[in-house]
């Protein structure tokens, strides 16, 4: 095949790719519009007077109107709620620790350039086999939602922050592994290859190669996942994994509306606290 024929084939392939991108984009917009249109008939309750009356009653109950005992105005209730907030914080910190310790080695093993030798100038059958095995494990970790992991661990252990921490840690280990492995696949291989040619061990590569190149972005990803873990902690708590989520579910079950408001206030305080600390740490990371 001549050069002109190859150019013609490449041109046809490029046109097909462009047409496929346009078709995919239009199909996505069409499906989105159809989804919204199909939702319209189910929104007829918004035009019913009874719905807004029930909404008003529910809102008044949350705010404690016409209630003799209001949980979010009680110092004793606040102390109890803050203890549960501390439990949620413990669960989140345990989870990010578990996720980080699992993700760091798995990220290296699931990086294609490391497994197939383009990064370290060395590969082997066990390393390639380990690549596929760990990649499958990471896929399972992040594909199963935190709630399902929480239900599994609650069955294996008992309700509390440990199943919640394990559930959040395992799921986020899968997410972190993928994010960090993509960072490894994008790094400049020359510094790593120079260390390899000088006979550096895997431990030396970690401390003098990967860590200096990846530390700033890796820490940013870890803080980002911590933000997500704090937000997800309420959801896993709803299935019995302890913390504010579990108390929130109990309050809903027993119609303790002002307790619901109190737990939501504590949850928002925790989210704002973690978000503020995370933002400050991200600013410091920029100087690394």
Automatic annotation (TrEMBL):
InterPro entries: MetI-like (IPR000515), MetI-like_sf (IPR035906). It is found in: Cell membrane. GO terms for biological process: transmembrane transport. Its main location: membrane. PROSITE patterns: ABC_TM1. The keyword DNA damage does not apply. Belongs to the binding-protein-dependent transport system permease family. This is ABC transporter permease. The lineage of its organism: Bacteria, Bacillati, Bacillota, Bacilli, Lactobacillales.
